[in-house]
Amino acid sequence: MLGEGLLKGLAVTAKNFAASYVSAERLTTVQYPEERIAPIEATRDFPFLVYDGEDWEAGLRCVACQICEKECPPKCIYIEKSKDKKPDFVGKMQIYPARFDIDISVCMSCQICVEVCPFEAIKMDTEFELSTTDRFGGLLHDRRALAKSNGHYRKIHPTEAGEVDARRAGEKAKAEAKAKLDAEAAAAKAAAAAKTAEPPAGAGD
Amino acid sequence: MSQLQSHSATAHEKPESQKLEGWNQPMELQPDGEAEILEVAMGPHHPSTHGVFRMDVALDGERVIRLKPVFGYLHRNHEKLGEGQSYLASMPYTDRLDYICSLTNNWAYALAVEKLTGQAVPERAEYLRVIVGELTRVQNHASSIGFLIQDMGASGTPLMYAFREREKILDLFEELTGARMMCNYMRFGGCRVDATQSWLDRTRKLVGELPAFADEFETLLCTNEILMARTQGVGILKPELAVNAGVTGPMLRASGVNYDIRKVDHYGIYDRFNFQVPLGDHWDVYDRFMIRLLELRESLKILEQALKEIPEGPVMDPKAKIRGFRPKPGEAYGRIEAPKGELGFYLISDGSPNPYRYRVRPPSLVNLTILEDMCLGNNVADVVLILGSVDIVLGEVDR
Amino acid sequence: MIDKLDQIFVLFEHWLLGYLPAFWRQPAGVLVNVVAIIAVFPTLMAISVWLERKGLGRMQNRLGPNRVGPFGLLQPVADGLKSLTKEDIVPRNADAAVHFLAPLVLLVAAFMGFAVIPMGRNMVLVEMDAGLLFYFSMGAATELSVFMAGWSSRNKYSLLGAMRAVAQMVSYEVPLLLSSVVVVMISGSLSLTKIVEAQNHYTGVFPHWYVFTPWGLAAFVIFIVAATAETNRSPFDLPEGESELVAGYFTEYSGFKFALFFLGEYIGMLSVAALGATLFLGGWSAPFSFLGWVPSWIWFFSKVMLSICFFIWLRGTMPRLRQDQLMNFAWKFVLPISLLNVLVAAAWRFLGGGWRQWVVCTLILALAYVGLGWGGMRRKRFGPRRYRYAE
Predict the structure, then answer these.
(1) Considering only CB atoms, which chain B residues are within 8 Å of A5?
(2) Given a cut of 50, is residue B23 above it in pLDDT?
């Protein structure tokens, strides 16, 4: 009958109208900024540099290998290596970035820098309310602005941070065990060398 | 054709003071009394052209006698950029081709590179690819129908219902890949990150609820007399013309041609799933949007099966290289059944880390080439509908 | 006491006019009534705009405006202020005088219709014997303004839109008039006050509104369809379709003139809703006899606002019809049914009381509707389809 489909359509709309007052399923508006959706853990916005401990310069994990700069598709990273070295978390001396700039107006949040970094130094942040009135300088983040602590990383991506920490703890333990073995071997060698050096001194008695 | 030639040849010459600028000129009757031809430019700034797209339409009264699509307003040099950067770096750019369906774009590119390098993909990764690919298809078809009805003037109600469901799917994508739309999820040899059990459970729950949404959509739309009057018999595309023009995807199947790349190529693991391919018999706008709705239901069937059968295992071959690899010189064409049609990537490698030639076969562009043939003889009000039924995304058309 | 509440505005007016000398009372009375109408109906229009945006929002699973004032109630005020402060652009080639006059003509013609509508017991501006005739002549003047707008803009889009709008409005005038003629036939008078009084009787609890008779229901449905087309509302809003040729005949209007067109359209909507309520829904009479204590003007305005809600509901659900389909629908479906309805109303009168008039009239109308509908759909080969799957 003519008009049946129209009446069915009117019924669907009326149902949605009435249901929008009673069920949250049918009224999906979230009134930002007063209400916010719970943040999803895996979300990625812009990169940041991770540092361990309290001192951001001493604890910065990045060793300026420049792999992320090479792999970044829109080339938004700019790195300058330092002239001197500083110890990393296992004690090895590494160079560090004297300059590490990311232009977030160019960055497209693709996360390739995070994937290719061998040192777990750069991770994705979840901060998106970054608007500023300075169109050029305000959107160019230098390494001071990018450096955030491991505690922050653990807060925003707990699962990932847990895995990274476990891996690094394992590496550190392995490095320490190796260092201890090396030290013991060196001490044994030194003791053996000292012993063989002693008897000639006592023989003249 | 002769009508149009005489229009320009015998136009009156007005004195300078009365000449008006631009296309705002008053219409003049031809000296030999022929009908006036109105030339209208629809777009690029238009509420219904699905992006920055222009159509130069010549009208005789209300009938379309000539239509020229003009695009290129969103050209972003994707293919040339691809030649200058590594294979991995092109992956985020493929997200931005058909920006509504980023995951299927990723899949087509990954398939092409895997063909080039001969890389195999673990089984769990294949299942995950199918799951996210079909979820992409569901949300694309729902939005496409919503946009079509919005263009018809239903003040966006079906569009809002489609977007409500799309939001749920995008939330799932954000949990899995980190971003709602620019997912950057597939890699050469698998997927970037594994899905947790809770994600799979939530997906199962959503897939269980989606058929109710499809039912509500059908009730609202499919027997609506006004919709039927507007779309049935409009924009007919004959099957021979469709095949000759290289049209693929739901448009081709609505013209009755049985060609679904999932069934033809058996790429991925699609031959393990039980699903059917709906075909249209009347070849008009109504068929196209009904085929999309039916395909949505078929995708839900595939999703149920995939979510049940997904095995444990790695999602990436640990020995697969994603950066710094140099494929042997050669060429490969990887294609999939994207929600809009056949999306193909053609890569030529010369042994260096960057491709020598990187070419995208955009389904929206190829489907757009017969827009004029479909619109001739129809009303100008139908042009918008026919364009909506082609389901284009300018990111793909212009690259 | 209840009577006083019912007549409160009339009494208030009498009290005000008591302060004037006798000579000035009648013209001042007219002035007061005119001012009242000009104050009330734009307020109702603001409420309708708010209702539309919130209603459409809720139908689409979202909130409507809710930032400007509590529940977004001040949103129409914000819209009005915005359009007042926008630059008024008149195209260089436009015919300036006609361009300026078009919205004014629309507003004046739309407001004139309210002069003859009884909004409560004893609450009508002008007690005219041929009130309905006056109303329709004023309604026809709105079509003039639409064409003035399109023509004066000297713009292909506007002209096309204006011509379509005028064609649509003219085609739907005929069913609109024919459905009102039926009411005139049965009530025996062109005066709207008499039509309302004829409906103000009750058998038991139920009122004698004309919508509760078969010919009245058919006429009411035809009236709604024709009224939606007259006021260019969805699903008949092709002339102002946003996705078709931008905004049609008022493409070239900006600033306050655009707001005036908007106002004129909504006043037109209120006007036909008021007429529909008067002709078919009993005007100011209560739906049940035991509710007669509620003031009559409350019933009238509730019926008008309910009709507005129905228009909004239609807008939220239906896509729009194409121009030629609109015209086909008017001339090949609505007009024959309205002509048949005139015959049915006459048959109603002459079949006398009792069950015979109900059965015969309902049967004729039902058969005609189903038959014409089925025939029309078959000829155009519209209909739901089944789809096959590939093997």
Answers:
(1) 222-225, 227-228
(2) no
CA distance A42 to chain C (A): 27
Which residue among C62, C320, C382 sits closest to B152, beta carbon to beta carbon? C320
Amino acid residing at A143: R
Position C19 in a domain: no
Chain B residues closer than 8 Å to C380 by CB: 229, 232-233
Q: Is residue C73 part of a domain?
A: no
Chain B residues 146-165 with a CB less than 8 Å from chain C: 149-157, 159-161, 164
CB of B394 closer than 8 Å to CB of B74: yes
What pLDDT, in 10s, does the model give residues B319-341? 888 778 888 899 999 999 999 99
Name the residue among A12, A43, A112 with its Cβ closest to that of B89: A112
Cis peptide bond N-terminal to C235, omega within 30: yes
Q: How far apart are CA A56 and CA A144, in angstroms?
A: 8
Contact C384 B228 (CB under 8 A): yes
User: Between chains, do B175 and A124 touch, taking CB under 8 Å as contact?
Assistant: no
Give the pair of three-digit tokens for residue A21: 């007052």
Place of tokens 């196209």: B288
* Per-residue pLDDT tens digits for B152-211: 877 778 888 899 899 999 999 999 998 899 989 999 988 998 999 999 999 999 999 999
* pLDDT beneath 50, residues of chain C: 243, 246
**Residue the block writes with tokens 């067109």:** C261
Residue C56 with chain B: CB contacts under 8 Å = 155, 157
Least confident window among A155-169, B17-31, C135-149, C223-237: B17-31
Q: What's the fold here for domain A47-166?
A: Alpha-Beta Plaits (3.30.70)
d(CA C61, CA C64): 9
ipTM score for this prediction:
0.84
Domains and CATH numbers, chain B: 78-398 (1.10.645.10)
In a domain, C275, yes or no: yes
How far does CA C257 lie from the centroid of its chain? 22
Q: Which domain holds residue C154?
A: 81-375
Chain C partners within 8 Å of A29 (Cβ): 62-63
* Gap between the Cα atoms of B270 and B303, Å rounded: 11
Residue-range domain boundaries for chain A: 47-166
Query: Quick one: pLDDT band at residue A67, thresholds 50, 70, 90?
Result: very high
**B181 in reach of chain A (CB within 8 A):** no
Q: Are strands B190-191 and B278-279 parallel, antiparallel or unpaired?
A: unpaired
Q: Quick one: which of C376, C311, C386 has its CA closest to C55? A: C311
